[in-house]
TrEMBL record, chain A:
This is (2Fe-2S)-binding protein. Residues 1-26 are annotated as: Disordered. CDD domains: fer2 (cd00207). The keyword Ribonucleoprotein does not apply. Keywords: Iron, Metal-binding, Oxidoreductase. It comes from the Bacteria.
UniProtKB/TrEMBL annotation, chain B:
This is FAD binding domain-containing protein. It comes from Streptomyces pathocidini. Transmembrane segments: none annotated. InterPro entries: CO_DH_flav_C, CO_DH_flav_C_dom_sf, Diverse_Substr_Oxidored, FAD-bd_PCMH, FAD-bd_PCMH-like_sf, FAD-bd_PCMH_sub1, FAD-bd_PCMH_sub2, Mopterin_DH_FAD-bd. Pfam families: CO_deh_flav_C, FAD_binding_5. Keywords: Oxidoreductase. It comes from the Bacteria. PROSITE patterns: FAD_PCMH. Residues 1-223 form the FAD-binding PCMH-type domain.
Length: 177, 331
């Protein structure tokens, strides 16, 4: 571990609060609940969720923004938790796959993934479901080609893609009715 | 990842002062490149200044017909903007053909201009790399270079500029607005903003340390209303370009009245195809002229054995883009 560089100058310190590099107290709003944790600023949102808050739904597939298994929602947008530093989410609302169900009832997309058999090993599934819910809200599920393109950030090594699209279609069509 | 400190800035002047004061500090916007490269010890700032709260995310038409895009506007916001889609289809297409939906929600326009190359030697902190550690050499030239550049290369670096939207912005001659530590502002012509590698591939931009991009200004370019972005890649989505073309074309009685062309995936910077444009202005809009223009542009290409295919592929992509526009199906 290399030594730390000089801290910010006095003038800058007065204008801006520098935190870290050691563990600092952070409050995150996750699935509607205020959660307090002690983390270093270098901790990703994904590690904060999995290692500190025991929310292991979001998966660590690649940890470099290429697989989509860590997809969660920050405010109203689907993002990659592995490339998001946890501290940047203070004051924002984080939703993980654990927060989709309401009153013990699975979200329609979760039910559709089960009904359509939209997974084999299941590792990418939480990311697929978080992405699929956002996809419908974004209005990019018009046809299969559009679903394919706008879900391309979520890889599935079991290649369950046709069933994932079927699940998305079924929720889309259920909404239309 | 090395330990870092974190601070969230509420205004631009504070953020700029904080980064300017310390060479070990860096701005943090969308983080899609920066966090990745921090984790791999390719970037080594010790202090991050989060600029995501700065009010720099609006997209505003200007009185002179230009469109000013705030540096913190996200790729997805810009792609969805009605004025962008109407006036500059090539920008919206380039954005939507880049990265994934999640990354487009995160990545900012300013950050897109500052994104680092995808060269695997640059991104491996163990490899020599003139861009990462000046003077250590370039293993790509004799190594795995299939994705590397054929235009604007030097004996010190052949890394391809990875951005899609910067290719469209190069064709449109956008301007990059910045603010420096004394609150002074500067507007860079797009051509001046991206430096050729030459003997200093570590210098990619003319920016001073702590100088912050505040906006990208796209001038009124009437021909861009009929424009497209064509991207050729190894897989259909979520992949960087092997070759890409941003093109706009207007014809009068079958003759080319105005044209804009820029190339991606083949050059060390977003590559405005000036030679091809010069050849095409006033020429008859026919395939033979498109082919000749493409040949002229690629005549200075310096490929490696592994990426020589890009020279032909780039020419074919240019011809296809121009034919598509000439045949009246712009988008």
């Amino acid at each position: 571990m290399s030594a730390q560089g000089p801290a910010l100058g006095e003038r800058q310190r007065a204008a801006i609060e520098e935190r870290g590099p050691g563990p600092v107290g952070v409050t995150l709003s996750v699935n509607g609940e205020e959660r307090s944790l002690e983390i270093e600023p270098r901790v990703s949102l994904l590690d904060a969720l999995r290692e500190h808050l025991e929310l292991t739904g979001a998966k660590k597939g690649c940890d470099q923004g290429t697989c989509g298994a860590c997809t969660v929602r920050v405010d109203d947008r689907r993002v990659l938790a592995c490339l998001t530093l946890a501290m940047t989410c203070e004051g924002r609302e984080v939703t993980t796959v654990e927060g989709l169900a309401e009153h013990g009832e699975l979200h329609a997309m979760q039910r559709a993934f089960i009904a359509e058999d939209a997974f084999q090993c299941g590792y990418c599934t939480p990311g697929q479901i978080m992405s699929a819910v956002a996809l419908l809200e974004e209005g990019h599920a018009g046809d299969d080609a559009e679903i394919k393109e706008w879900m391309s950030g979520n890889l599935c090594r079991c290649a369950a893609y046709p069933h994932i699209r079927a699940a998305i279609r079924s929720v889309r069509d259920g909404q239309r009715r | 990842m090395r330990p870092i400190t974190y601070a969230r800035a509420a205004d631009a002047a504070t953020a700029i002062a904080a980064v300017s004061a310390d060479p070990g500090s860096a701005f943090l916007a969308g983080g899609t490149t920066e966090v990745d490269l921090l984790r791999q010890n390719v970037l080594t700032p010790r202090h991050l200044i989060d600029i995501n709260d700065l009010p720099l995310n609006s997209i505003e038409p200007q009185p002179d017909g230009a469109l000013r895009i705030g540096a913190l506007a996200r790729m997805s916001d810009v792609a969805a903007d009605p004025l962008v889609r109407e006036r500059y289809p090539m920008i919206a297409q380039a954005l939507e053909l880049g990265a994934s939906a999640q990354l487009r929600h995160m990545a900012s326009m300013g950050g897109n201009m500052m994104q680092r190359v995808r060269c695997s030697y640059f991104r491996d902190a163990e490899s020599p790399c003139n861009k990462r550690e000046p003077g250590t050499g370039c293993p790509a030239i004799e190594g795995v270079s299939r994705g590397h550049a054929v235009l604007g290369v030097s004996e010190h670096c052949v890394a391809t500029h990875p951005s899609d939207v910067a290719v469209a912005l190069a064709a449109l001659q956008a301007r990059v607005h910045t603010q420096g530590p004394g609150e002074e502002t500067h507007a860079y012509a797009f051509d001046d903003f991206f430096l050729l590698p030459g003997s200093t591939p570590d210098r990619e931009h003319p920016l001073a340390h702590g100088e912050l991009i505040t906006a990208i200004e796209v001038p009124a370019v009437p021909v861009a209303r009929r424009s497209l972005y064509l991207k050729v890649r190894d897989r259909e989505s979520y992949e960087f370009a092997l070759v890409s073309v941003a093109a706009a074309l207007s014809l009068v009685d079958g003759t080319i009245a105005d044209v804009r062309l820029a190339l991606g995936g083949v050059a060390t910077r977003p590559w405005r195809a000036m030679h091809a444009e010069d050849f095409l202005i006033g020429a008859v809009a026919q395939r033979a002229n498109f082919e000749q223009a493409a040949r002229v542009e690629l005549s200075t290409a310096r490929p490696t054995p592994m990426n020589a295919f890009k020279v032909e592929l780039a020419q074919r992509a240019m011809v296809r883009a121009l034919e598509t526009l000439a045949n009246g199906s712009p988008a």
